[in-house]
Amino acid sequence: MRRLAALALFTSVGVLAACTDPHNSLVTDEPVASFDLAASHGRFGGPPSIIPFTGDAACLDNGQILMDPTDEPFQLPAGWTQKIITFEDDFLTTNTEVNFDMLTLNETGPHAGRYLYRTHEVDDYAALSRVDLLTGTSTLVAERQDWESFDGLAWTPWGTILMAEEVITASFRDPQYPNIVRGLIYEYNPATGDVKALPAVGARSHEGLRFDSQGNLYGISESRGIANAGKPGESGAIFKFVPTRKGDLSAGKLYALKVRNGQTRTGEATWVELKLDQTTFDSDAAAQAVGATGWDRPEDIEITRQGNSDVMYVGVTESSNLAKNNGLVLKIVLRSSTFAVVSNYVLPGTNVPHEVADPVWGSDAGLGFDDPDNVEVLPNGDVLINEDDSPSDTWIARGSGPMATTVVEFSRLLDCGAETTGVYYDKFRRILYMNSQHAALHGGRDLTVAIYPPKGQ
Question: N or C end: fewer C-beta atoms under 10 angstroms in the chain?
């Protein structure tokens, strides 16, 4: 039986009342949570000292249930510590599955850094929830019956939240746009609770969402589009949306990336303008129509500044043109509004080992790099990479050139059935947040975990 949230329906399609952010005179620019998130821990300042594992612990199955909230779900290098800050049953949702996915703070505004937002990747009644880092309280912010598989999540420069559906073919149509059959991006306003769809950005299987320094929005199609030979309607492309007016994503121009060397899919690339059908807003079809370059399930993206250019990293979960299907991480230097340079920043068999079966962990989560998914850039330029498997590892890649010079294993999830999702860096407290999704341990409850560097860093 489904659990009903303790919030009132406010439309016929099942929207639950959205909670607005309360004002609190105790909130500062760098609030410290009442449950002591930051105290007595190190902080990311300069380049953190990353010590790779000297051995691997065996994962635990659901016959070894851990119920104690002090249990540590991740294996970390020596000196690193962790704390579970939320269990999935700390609040109620309509869907019996919770599936914690992406994370973001409210990065700007008078309460910046206080609220940790989180999407929920479920088949229907996809949701947005929030953890108040001052009080430790978890709240269901919004959910709707026709929302499905929320994955991508981003804080906008103007103080709203983007949350995106990761579906190629929607099972539940948006009542305002019944002819759109693919995933949509929605914009939530924390100040008012209002939510609106953004079809002009394109309808497709969305995941990672990030802005460049000019306010343009980038995203992907989480589908198979190897060398533009993917399934009909699946592009596997990388997109850029340039709004007509900054701060307004309801209108603008949509582009897809086209690499000149279609065989290697590296080197010089251009952004090609797309013509969206104004009824279906199908950006996969539009990308395929112009010959945009396709990858095999690109997923998360992150954008940072490097020298005089914005630089984008893209986790590609699978890459069928490789000898082994282990995925890769792209680095895309955004040289100008029309020109970019693409390289394989992390490539199994070149600068990181292919995954091989581990005698303890088994073939699905052995030693080596496999199925990269979420990415995050630390202040020193290091790139953190979550794997999309169960149980999953997190890697750290380092190097300012086209390819990482160092790639080492940073953490390992100790739950045999779970997946690490949503790696996110908290610039206020300088700590990491990660989720354990599809959990088997801890009573089968998904977790959100804070991870701290060693003291003195």
Answer: N
Q: Where are the beta strands (DSSP E) in 404-445?
A: 406-413, 419-426, 431-437
Helix (H/G/I), strand (E/B), else coil: 418: coil
55 CB-contact burial (10 Å; exposed 0-12 / middle 13-18 / buried 19+): exposed
Please identify which residue in the block is written with the tokens 């300012």: 400
- Residue of 238, 241, 245, 271 lying closest to 253 (CA atoms): 241
What's 44's DSSP letter? -
Give all strands (DSSP E) within 145-215, no chain letters.
150-155, 161-165, 185-188, 195-197, 210-211
**Mean pLDDT of successive 10-residue segments in the chain (457 residues)?**
31 35 34 41 45 63 68 87 92 94 95 96 97 94 98 98 97 97 97 97 98 97 74 89 97 98 94 98 96 94 95 87 70 97 95 72 63 93 90 90 94 88 91 92 90 79
Q: Cβ-count burial of 193 within 10 angstroms (0-12 exposed, 13-18 middle, 19+ buried)?
A: middle
